[in-house]
Amino acid sequence: MNQPSPTMLKKASYFYPVASKLEKSLKHLKVFLYQAKWNINLVEHISYSLFVATLNTFYFLIFMLFIWFITKNPLFLKFLFLSIPIFFLMFYSALYRPKVIALRRARKIEEELPYALRHLLIQVKSGVPLYQGFVSISDGYGEVSKEFKEIIKKINSGYSEIKALEESILRSASQKYRKAFWQILNSMKTGTDVSTPLENVVNEIINDQILAIKNYGQQLNPLTLMYMMMAVIMPSLGITFLVIISSFIGFTIPNLLFVGLAFFLIVFQWSFLNIIKTKRPNVKI
Length: 285
What we know:
single chain, Receptor-associated Protein, flat
């Protein structure tokens, strides 16, 4: 779960007094800690975040002073003022790390969810008990299988199926997972047939995925046009235009311009690939 080690928590304990004062204003982080499956309380998490921010800021200060000592350039002393924004940036990043972990896990769950639900639907329609259906999807479906291994473990330790499923729903950051299994849970509580709501959920998720793929295809058209303009047409035409103009007026194009252009193209293409990746629908291929 990538949670802080006991050693790190022990070192961070010096920040407990400050963390206790910040706890009231940061109570919303308890949800993220719960969903990320970090077995630490909020005060420990805030203390750890303060410790990480302080440590990284200290390393930054030492590095700047070391560079200044070698170069004797006063500019590096001015960089020391960046330690304040760096501290708050590091503190914020560490503070919301559980949220990032929970959302990343939710994304992985949603990739496998329709396939696991379809498998469960086939099992239920075949007359297999729901518990055995849970066992059948506890392997081969990534994060969904991990979730159901925990559910089965709780059931085997004495939990009822309803209670084990409720805890799993509450601990998941995936809205699709929560929505799907709330419907199944309601059917279990009322004693109605589980297969009908399960089939509706599977069809709904599949339709949402089809719609997401269509929207993604429509978004790619303007993005592709932008890429062609910024990464192909404008650089090539711009360089050609400069070469022609320089031949008429005797102007020499500086090499720095080509270096800057190459750097711009690298950054632009890296940014473009990240945009494409973030807009890609959460569908397993």
